[in-house]
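[job 0412] stage=fold_complex status=start
inputs:
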Amino acid sequence: MPSDVSLTLIVFVPLIGAMVIALLPVRTDLERFRVRTGALLATGLPLAIAIFDLLGEVGNPAQGAIAQPSIDAPWLRGFYFQLDYHLGVDGLSLMLLFAVTAVFPALVLASWRMRERTRSHFALMLISETSLAGFFATQDLMLLVLFFWLPVFPLALLVGSGSRPGAREAARRLLLTQSLGAAALLVAVLLMLLQTGNTTFNFVTLSTVGPLKGAPGLIVAGLLLFAFGARMAIVPLQRWLLDGVAVAPTPVGMLLVVSSLPVGTYGLVRVLLGMDPRGGLQLVVPVLLLAVVTLYWSALRALGERDLRRATAALLAGVSGPVLLGIISFSETSLSGALWLAFALTFVSPLLVMAIGAVADRGGGAEVASITGRAAGAARLKLMFIVGAASLGGVPFLVGFPGVFQVVVGSFAEHRFITAAVIVGMGLLAYAAWRVGTGPFWAPAAETELADQVPDSRGSEFYAGWWLAAAAVVFGITAGYFVPYTVHGTDLVAARVSSMAPAKVPGK
Amino acid sequence: MNLAFLQDFGPLGVLLLGAVVCLGVEGGLYGSRGDRATLSRWIAVAFTALAFLAAVGFWRSSLGPAPPDVEHGSFLVDRFALFFYAAAPAAAAAILLTGSDLEEQLDPHQPLYHALVLVSTSGVMLTASGADLLTLLVGLATVSLPLVLGSALRKVDPGTVRSATRSFVVCAALLATFAAGEAILAGLGHATQLSLLEALPPSPLLGLAVLLVTVGVAGPLGAFPLTWWRAGAAKAAPLGPSLAGLALGALAAAAALLRLLPGALGAATPGWNVAVGVVAALTILIAPALAWRQRSLLAAVGYLFVGDAALVLVGLSWSSRPATAAVLYLALGLVPLATASLGLLGTVQLSGAGDGIAQLRGLASRSPLHAGLLALLLAAVAGLPPLTGFFARIMVVESSLQAGLGWLAVAVVLGAILSAAVAMRWTLALVDPQAEGQPLELPSRATLVGLGLSLAAIAGFTVTLGPLMGIAARAALAPLAGP
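[job 0412] stage=fold_complex status=done
writing structure:
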């Protein structure tokens, strides 16, 4: 069990770091160095706590089904509903929470060379870490809404303060899409409360009360799908992510992709299936359609894009397809696969964005024509891209494989044709990834002057890439140790959905 | 002779006494000409502190099993009133401290302005204590008219005089509207006591009366169709009286509306909550849309503030203790918003650099402290999480859903998104790396103290949401009509 303060520290140390950093001067190189170091410390401390205090949980998979509380204190009384400051982890959230704490030091390292707006960049990034960690650590639904909404404004500011053309437009689109999503989530949560007659937002209570029925259940489910689907960048709500990654500085693009799919996936499993399972059952057909359309549309878009950053973002958005299939198949294996894919993407997606972004930044643009073959000699960047793309494609012994495998195995019995279509789509996505990488990394040498080669990754950027790639490999090899814990977390969700429609839901 | 009323009127009397002392400073009885402004400001702050402490003491003594509600004719001192007895002096102190740099605009009549603020604050208390229609009218007049007078103290600028005259006309018209509604209610009920209005049978005339009093009270909030008024007045008038009017006006309007609508009428007049909801929805959607069009930060913040203040009307849609508590929390949260706006925008105005989007572009690189604080203010006015406005919005959305007004909840959510877009537009301008300009000077120490307190309250009201709502829930029981 996590100690009383560990989750609070994991969630709020970055926020405290942001506040401290906001007050530091940034006139000289030394002062900027202090800001960076402060940000690294503020992200390193939660990681250290997570390693020493949280990962011990995994050793006992049986506990994965039950939220291990860290703190549960009353916050709001005297209104129609109650709010609790309630943090805890279970099999659904622990690995994602750990991934968030692990990825942010890499994001800080990737931002190390930024010289403009250093202070605001790191402060906003740390606020984003608090919101993501809080989202996965909370056990109170209203707190979850709060942490879901919290990063929207900082992310829009980070995107909009970039100097590339279209930054403002992308920031506006991000703000609009994500604010609408967050608003939909809020309305869904309040409707859920109203319909069930509950006065508490406690996860356990909301996951055990009688489910919403009929139209209210469907409306709530639709709102939840919109909210979390917008965050996952499913079709037709993916332009905010594509534009954001295309125009934002590379570290901001990395942050955007970390904030998208993992959050949406967890939200759908935790809230839609956990608390409105009957509504989820009514959405099977539309979600399956969305899964297939998102996967194919994203893969084709990645193939057709001339901007490599945008193409990379499209690749990553395409993974929403198998994730949606895993979620809507309702078996504990497929749910575990969806969550594991979200976990894998937390490391893999920033790795891919960084590899492509580094080439584009140093090559003078992300247009395919302008950087073709110019990273052929950048062995480290090439390796990072290979690890990322292979993980995305579900190559064994890399972190993406257990996710893809579980989704396919867990979904096949219920949705054979759709699963087959998704397998083909994943192949198409892998082909698109290969095409994206071919341009800068493997184009014929004759097309490129040797002098125009972009410099390879080094220094802080290399350490960030190394960290992410190492995570992709280590968690791929040791998945057998961690996956049972996640599966135990999905037991209860799958069982609850089963109890609603036993005839439709397959066994393990 | 029973002198208990002296104790019951204590906080209010302290403020009026402070106003008299400030008038003495204005008249030259105390202090030399050079330091009169500072002397009277600290006198006024001291009297607000005394009134606050007296109110807190009163509140603590009222926490027994049976709250000792004290009634002197049409003047009622219950927990509801005591909530405002504490909130209003705190707001006044924050206004006086945060606006100290801006008082140069009112030179040499700063002591008179301080006296007017204290009188206006006592008007909030009077309104909160109103047990009949006349007391409410007197209370609202006592809140608004002194500050209109205060805005006329700066006579160097013809635009200011025009603005003050316009404010006076609007205030008088609103009070007249309110009085007309009251007259109809009094005629229908053959009484002016609020407690007797609950028994009135529904009729078209009663509906008209409710409409008139609602417009008369909601007007000071800048509710539709008077959305332009508050923000527009703030553009030309001296900033101190304008923003003091926003803060104290919001408190008084919340008190009056709660006493009158859920308090007196309750469920007796079905449908009034729909009418109030329509006004609220229009205000909530129009105000941020108007804010989007503004090129002046002051006007934009003014309109956003009007949108926030209209949430008070949304909270009224559900006649219940939780909803009333939420309105009280919301009204309390509006105070630091107004005072922080006062301090920050005043600093910008005094710098002479202008508050247009062109002048403020790139402020983050030349005055990072100002830019950071302005960004925080914009986030707060837009109700972004995790600041006070976010929770206030959640609670009023829940209230409207409980009242069966789902469309109102949707309007609140859309208004929040529009407000966020306005906030982002200005924040992006503040962090624009390419713009150049002059850095802003730091404000005076008194302003910094007031500003710090206001911003701490904006952030702190989130953390202390539970205790504050606990206090508000205790205060909320008093004004509700029916069982």
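[job 0412] summary: The first strand of chain B starts at residue 70 and ends at 72.
[job 0412] exit 0
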